[in-house]
Design brief:
Elements: H1 2-28, H2 34-39, H3 45-55, H4 61-73, H5 87-122, H6 127-141, H7 144-158, H8 174-208, H9 211-218, H10 223-252, H11 255-260, H12 266-275, H13 279-307, H14 309-312
Helix pairs in contact: 1-13, 5-6, 5-8, 5-10, 6-8, 7-8, 8-10, 9-10, 10-13, 12-13
């Protein structure tokens, strides 16, 4: 197990190093001058030069990259060009929205997907199975931002059950905040629930064909009893892996949804920073999200190895 963990740690470090280089190079090739954007088109050249010097834009690419990485390792994310505020403070404020939204969406997708996948697997080939697979196929095909706008039209504009967007802040109370996050969480959760339900069904069907399940059936258990007592537990291994990967996606992939609902989360912060050419914010927030994704994947792989000894043995 120690050897497997060390190999995963090395893979994690390499992934982060490669990601940092890719992110930095991608940001560097974006068109536009941050100094010119901040001062406007009528700014004097000497003023632009002074601001570039202040922001460190006159340094070479390698010097800027080294300074950025050393700052990240020390917990210093730099200072925003636009807001003149430490990026770490901005991230701390925005993650209070993005993290609860990701957890809320993950809980909803799991609550929806597990019963749907189990029901479909227990009625393979029957109308219930066909109906659930049809609905999940539709859920995978429909873009979540389109579904989000549809829910705003129905539940906010017509029925007036929820607000069309915005976030009241946690000082307003947990219930008010959860209500504001409900529609965005549903928009994020439904496509993920569709994927998870299909994976759950496939995993259960594969497990039901195993020898130990057939032995349990030969001893007198019904199909439903064999599914609940034996198949379900073994079928959860790949499903839990997918859940871990989905959490990474929900945390890092909510940019469009946060903009649809005007949520002050990390996704909206990235969008605003790209629009204003605030390179420090974009680089730091994207790198933080990549770090979260890689760490979650690492934790999933370790948990998977604890369950499946074949991985620890390298087979």
């Amino acid at each position: 197990m120690l050897r497997y963990t060390l190999k995963r740690l090395v893979s994690l470090a390499v992934s982060l190093a490669v990601a940092s280089v890719v992110i930095f190079l991608a940001i560097e090739v974006l068109p536009g001058d941050p100094a010119a954007y901040m001062l406007g088109v009528n700014a004097q050249e000497d003023t632009l030069a002074a601001l570039r010097e202040q922001l460190g834009l006159n340094m070479s690419g390698w010097e800027r990259y080294s300074s950025w990485i050393l700052g990240l390792l020390q917990g210093d994310f730099g200072t925003s060009y636009t807001y003149r505020t430490p990026v770490a403070d901005m991230i701390a404020e925005r993650v209070k929205v993005s993290l609860p939204l990701a957890v809320y969406a993950l809980v909803l997708s799991t609550v929806i997907a597990f019963p749907a996948g189990i029901y479909a697997a227990s009625r393979r080939g029957r109308p219930g199975d066909v109906a659930i697979m049809g609905v999940t196929q539709l859920g995978v095909a429909i873009p979540n931002f389109w579904f989000a706008m549809l829910m705003v039209l129905v539940f906010s504009i017509n029925l007036r059950w929820f607000s069309a967007g915005g976030f009241p802040g946690w000082d307003a109370g947990v219930l008010a905040c959860l209500k504001a996050l409900t529609l965005p969480a549903i928009a994020l959760a439904l496509p993920q629930a569709s994927i998870l339900a299909r994976v759950m069904r496939s995993s259960l069907l594969d497990t039901l064909s195993e020898d130990f399940v057939r032995t349990a059936r030969a001893k007198g258990l019904t199909r439903a009893q064999a599914l609940r007592r034996h198949a379900l537990r073994n079928a959860l291994i790949p499903v839990l892996t997918i859940i871990g990967l989905q959490f990474s996606f929900l945390l890092a992939g909510a940019i469009i949804i946060e903009n649809v609902f005007f949520l002050p989360g990390l996704g909206r912060l990235i969008f605003q920073s790209i629009s204003s050419r605030d390179l420090v914010v974009v680089e730091s927030v994207v790198m933080l999200l990549v770090f979260a994704v890689v760490v979650v994947n690492f934790a999933v792989e370790i948990a998977y190895a604890l369950v499946d000894p074949r991985l620890r043995a390298g087979r």
